[in-house]
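Q: Could you fold this chain for me?
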Amino acid sequence: MKKERFLTLLITILVALNSFAQEILTSSNPIQPGEVLINGHIKNYKGLDKTGNLFIRDAITGITNQELFSIDSAGNFKTSYDLICLTMNSSIQIGKTWFYIYLVPGETYDITINENGTHVFTGENSELNNDINELNIAILSKFKKDNSKLSLYHRNNSIDYQSFERLWDDLLKR
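A: Sure. Below is the predicted structure, expressed as structure tokens.
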């Protein structure tokens, strides 16, 4: 009888410890999946593009997923995506307008796209997304000629890898 009580007490303690450990692991895990919601508005929308695309490159698998979203007659759009972990390898494309977006699971993003294609983020992570956008514009402006060279390498089927590597090394140094 004593052995049975001791065994029952031991099993109860082990189950409680296991539950406690699981709770700690879940709460301290940096990978917390959740739905990302993106709301947008195109100023002075002329109705040319009826849809847009959200491209999300999974940080774990490297696979790019695409979500097609519709744009209403007033220039508003909304899309959501179940994201496993945060990613900076995401972008939005509407017609010729294209930009990066940093996404965190469980957050909502609001974007206003101006008539000239520039855009402004508001809401969660808006400061970070606006800073990323400014950095991309500065890099593209500074290395415009080099970006054209890189594009040629990507489009050309016969790549001279040594020249390509020298170009990348030069960009890295600058």
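A (continued): The mean pLDDT is 81.
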